[in-house]
Amino acid sequence: MNITQRIIVLDAADIDAESRFWASVLGGTVDAADDDWHRVHAGGEYVLAVQLAPDHVPPQWPEGTPPQQIHLDLHVDDIGAAHEEVLAAGATLLKRGSEDERFHVYADPAGHPFCLCW
Predict the structure, then answer these.
(1) C-alpha torsion sign, points 64, 66, 67, 68
(2) What is the dihedral of CA 61, 66, 71, 76, to 10 degrees?
(3) Which residue of 25, 30, 49, 87 could cross-link 9, Cys pair, CB 3.0 to 4.6 Å?
(4) Which helix (H) or strand (E) holds 24?
(5) pLDDT tens digits, residue range 22-35?
(6) What tens digit of pLDDT does each residue of 77-101 get?
(7) Beta strands 72-75 and 45-52: pairing type?
């Protein structure tokens, strides 16, 4: 199998807020050409998409209904600066990790969990 592109697609009731958040975090831009599908470009590449899901229910992390079904691990050089950046962009801190764990858990504007790892 020759896979020519890999795109992660996130569902969101508010695709404008969700796509702007991820463009900010990834240092990219939003291509909002469609009302129900936004592309996030970073580093000159199409790296993520956001699909309109009007009935999207944010997952409840770490346990709940609905449970998380996917999350992103983003490895960073400076956890302090990255922490401040994602909060300023609209993330919510769900769990502050310890030096032994080496990750913090956040939710994006649609409630999708993601981790900043160091």
Answers:
(1) negative
(2) -30
(3) 49
(4) helix 15-26
(5) 999 999 999 998 99
(6) 999 999 999 999 999 999 999 989 9
(7) unpaired
